[in-house]
Please model this.
Amino acid sequence: MAMGRATRMLIGLMVALLLAPFIGNDYLVSVLILCLFNAYLAQAWNIMMGFAGQLSLGHALYVGLGAYAGGALFFHYGTPPWIGMIVGAAIAALVGGVIGFLGFRFGVKGVYFALLTIAFAEFTRILFDHFTWVGGSSGLYLPVVRADHDNLLLLRGRPAMFYYVILGLSAAVFLICHRILGSRLGYYWRAIREDQDAAQALGIDTFKAKMAAVMLSAALTAVGGVFYAFYTNTLYAESAFAMHRSIELILGAIIGGMGTLFGPILGAFLLTLLGELLTRLAENFGHGFEGVKQIGYGLILLVIIALRREGVWPRLAKRLGLDGEKAS
Amino acid sequence: MSALLAVDGISKSFRGLKAASAVSFELDAGAILGLIGPNGAGKTTVFNMIAGVFPPDEGRVRMDGRDITGKRPDQICRAGIGRTFQIVKPFGGLTVRENVIVGALASCKTVADAEREADRVLDLLGLADKARQPAHALTLPDRKCLEVARALATRPKLLLLDEVMAGLRPTETDRMVAIFRQLNRESGLTILLIEHVMRAVMALAQRIVVLNTGEVIATGTPEEIAADQKVRDCYLGEEAA
Ligand SMILES: Nc1ncnc2c1ncn2[C@@H]1O[C@H](COP(=O)(O)OP(=O)(O)O)[C@@H](O)[C@H]1O
Ligand SMILES: [Mg+2]
Model:
């Protein structure tokens, strides 16, 4: 059956990913970390837009909140990032809840809601740039320990450890999405995405369901932000809350296929690999090629919108004989 | 004995234009009431006020003796009122079955129960062979049918049907009429239907309310309505022409 086939492919993919650090070199691992990190974020964003149909263009807000919550707690109190993740997730859920409340209670819809999310992200970026407790504009540097020793509790160690952490987080968010999609809430979200009036007429409390989507998406995104802080060790409000991050994490989901489970992962991998390739090219050719990555992203997005609105995944799923998979 | 649904003097204006004015009628449990009138008479507006899309400017709506005026559509649904939309609103990206499951979730504790309920309703409405199709691929008659299926899956006490037979072929209309008759007889489903297809209204409704320019101009049995001169002038006459 199709479902068994999908599961088998998934297990195969997982095994390959588990073995990758043993086969590839450090460079490959670093690229894969980036792929998985972007896949994680794309999947978290997809909950809000792909499942529940609520467009957020300011998701870097939650990445940044998570990064700073986890980073600052560790910097000041030595708090393990795993606790930082809980705190960051809670803060992000709260902020997401405020944005959702404002948007959904006062009927701010579509583009205007998306603008609201950008406004919050930009506002918070400027706020953190002046927030001296987290380093202000001179940045927050997490203490680095000797790199030959892995400390999983404090997330200090070698790239391979970070690789397995982000692989685990990505697998977890995938499973969470899979479970929710088949649940009552998943049906509610997809109904709201397709037609909110009809959803409401069928007894769905659309306000509550949309709040759940925003808060869960925000919380999961913040967990990714904590990972980001500990992986990069350096936090600048300028980059943690960067608008381009909001855009990039959306692009992956759009290119792969919004609303699907595999689309965001596939899209994030494609986009990250392309970005890496273009960055390399730009380095080799030197000056004048700095913007080539952004141009590449722009072009691939144009191609997708022109040729395959629903993204790469749905068609690929059909090719692979996986139509049984919940691609809706 | 109180009515299942009591509509008491509800009015609604849109930018000064009175779409419904002081509309009143009652509906006993197990009854079928037809709401007819020319285009723009305010029928859908009355439905929307009952279903909670917008509150009436004045007047009350009571269901089961409880005041439901101004409640949200989802609360109205949970109060036991299911509705269809005149301009159909399928969840296009979901399959036909998933559409109905969403409705069934309102009346079922678990997703598995909702799936079973959805399959039962799909069978009842003859949509079972299209269950796996995406809803956007359905023809208009099937979409109308899906509207009904979704609303029925919520297991309402009262079903509001807004021109579900419009655009159906006579055989399809007859089948739909038969289904509503059966539901009414066997499960005591109360129905309020807006309908232009007169043979459906005459076949189903025990009583008819006629709206014209937002006002109730006649109430009575199908025979009384058919004989009413005012109604013939403003509505039935135009239909016969
Ligand atoms: N949401 C709305 N906004 C503005 N005007 C409306 C709205 N709904 C209905 N109307 C107006 O109210 C009048 C009655 O419409 P409606 O209730 O749809 O009539 P019917 O269903 O009997 O054909 C029409 O003039 C229509 O244009
Ligand atoms: Mg109408």
Notes: The radius of gyration of chain A is 19 Å. Residues 24-241 of chain A form one domain. Residues 256 and 267 of chain A are 4 Å apart (CA to CA). Chain A is about 75% helix and 0% strand.
